[in-house]
Amino acid sequence: MPPKAPIKLFSGRNTLYLSEKISLCSGRDLGKINCIHFSDGEFATAYEETVRGSHVFLMQSTFPPTDNLFELLMMIDAAKRASAYKIVAVIPYFGFARQDRKDQPRVSIGAKLVADMLTAAGVDRIITMDLHADQIQGFFNIPVDHLYASSIFVPFIRSMNLDNLVIASPDVGGTKRANTYSKFLGAPMVIGYKQRSRANVVDEIRIIGDVKDKNVILIDDMADTAGTLSKAADVIMADGAKSVRAFVTHPVLSGKAYDNINNSALTEMYVTDTIPLKKESDKIKVLSVAQVFADTIEKVYNYQSISAQFIN
Questions:
Q1: Sequential pLDDT tens for the chain (312 residues)
Q2: Stretch (H or E) spanning 155
Q3: Residue 311 domain-assigned?
Q4: d(CA 231, CA 289)
């Protein structure tokens, strides 16, 4: 086993809200890091304490703007040049994950580009949650610990004690994820079939399966404009469901997302804090993933298995 190096936790600026919770859950203080700004908008990252020989965990979700991604790259580079022993990027929300393949001519595979940049910067390991596409793990030639929000969602759904429970996927692409919840909760599953005219615009959704007099839970990894979730909820209620709720890992919530959710048939929507909410909504409830990440960081640091974290 490699020699035991001291552990140090650091946070990017826009993920500090979550990093402080992770730090509290792990019983470890956040390290001191400074971001120096220039008048033209350029910035530089500097550690205010030594990281030489340390096992460094850098916490930063890479939601927009791209400054968050670039700040993480600079944090990695600075730690590498300061002789850190190991550098682990903790990325609760992995941005650009929807760009996982060439789905039309002459487009970038953005997720692979981000993976290459992180690797080139000098990261040794990635810890992330609910990637939009599982195959992104294969874009890296370093270990990737892929966590699942199901580890907190499934116990919470059980505690709700809903009768006639049905798990729903808002689209065909999410059937594997929904099937996991269906299996662990012992509930049947239905599928939404959607047609898009372009990105972020859903023309039509049809529900495949029986939802009449059921309490339906929609499962998804992320909600951007929430158009799919909102339309799916409306169709499910129109098909005779008793209630419909959504459990979504990453609350991107851009554009008209809040209006879509508030005006939809959704009873409530549960999200995690991998991305901070832009504003409050009576329908949106937040469940924290801080303990999951704190436990994983400790297990990775102590060379222990993290398989107990997985409900997948």
A1: 556 899 999 999 999 999 999 999 999 999 999 999 999 989 999 999 999 999 999 999 999 999 999 999 999 999 999 999 999 999 999 999 999 999 889 999 999 999 999 999 999 999 999 999 999 999 999 999 999 999 999 999 999 999 999 999 998 888 999 999 999 999 999 998 876 555 555 567 889 999 999 999 999 999 999 998 999 999 999 999 999 999 999 999 999 999 999 999 999 999 999 999 999 999 999 999 999 999 999 999 999 999 877 654
A2: helix 150-160
A3: no
A4: 27
111 and 196 in a single domain? The answer is: no
CB neighbour class for 103 (10 Å; exposed up to 12, middle 13-18, buried from 19): exposed
Tell me whether residue 282 is in a domain: yes
Q: Choosing from 8, 86, 112, 194, which is the catalytic residue?
A: 194
Q: How many domains does the chain have?
A: 2
Whether the pTM exceeds 0.70: the reply is yes
* Residue ending a domain, choose from 88, 116, 147: 147
Q: Are residues 158 and 96 in the same domain?
A: no
Residue 242 annotated as catalytic: no
What is the spatial distance between Cα 202 and Cα 196, in angstroms, rounded to a whole number?
A: 5
Q: Please indicate, yes or no, whether residues 203 and 93 belong to a single structural domain of this protein.
A: no
